[in-house]
Amino acid sequence: MRPATTNALLEVDGVGVRFGAVQALDQVSLSVRRGEIIAIIGPNGAGKTTLLNVISGFYHPSEGHIRFEGRDRTDLAPYDVAALGIARTFQNVALFKGMSVLDNIMTGRLLKMKGSFLLDALYWGPAKAQELEHRAFVERIIDFLEIQAIRKTPAGRLPYGLQKRVELARALAAEPTLLLLDEPMAGMNVEEKEDMCRFILDVNREFGTTIALIEHDMSVVMDISDHVAALDYGRKIADGTPDEVRGDQAVIDAYLGVSHV
Length: 261
Hints:
The protein is of the alpha/beta class.
């Protein structure tokens, strides 16, 4: 188990989530250190996406607390959570399919944009300068993720792997302190997974972004994670380094099943 730390960016403390008679999360506690990559693993239905939804404000816990940068943000709405510096991608791609890649990524800058309705409507003065500034930032992300060739392509025409990369770009456009990735490599082939692993590591190293990701590919988890937390039936069953969690008997039992013979 990981020792207690005062360098926690995010603290999940005794969080529970119930849907009717179903206990989706049960007394889950988790500490995410600033600058690390944490993988959240577990079998299907373990509560992984529910945990990300609680952290990002889409669900509110029935018990427990969530602190971000030392402040309680348990009951904040998703918009307010995003404004604090938490961005995410989704298990199922959630792009605007009829909009270009560039315009999709520009939507990630909305929280950074300020101005008046009149100036924005006239596209004059500060409004024009602001849009040019945000567009320049988005172009840097496009270069970083190597998607220059598709910047004007409608997102709905792209293959699935590229749509995942565009969704990552949109999340990065918000300049998050904490980036939540829900199965960023689902449905990808080996080459696409290698590219996504490289980009995730580069985002962490070059931007200093703390990353929490859900991933089923254990080889990916072991290669890129500093810290792994395992869930099963809504409860945390292991928490530590990749090697510690890989050898944990409770994790092995959760993935392979327990023989009662």
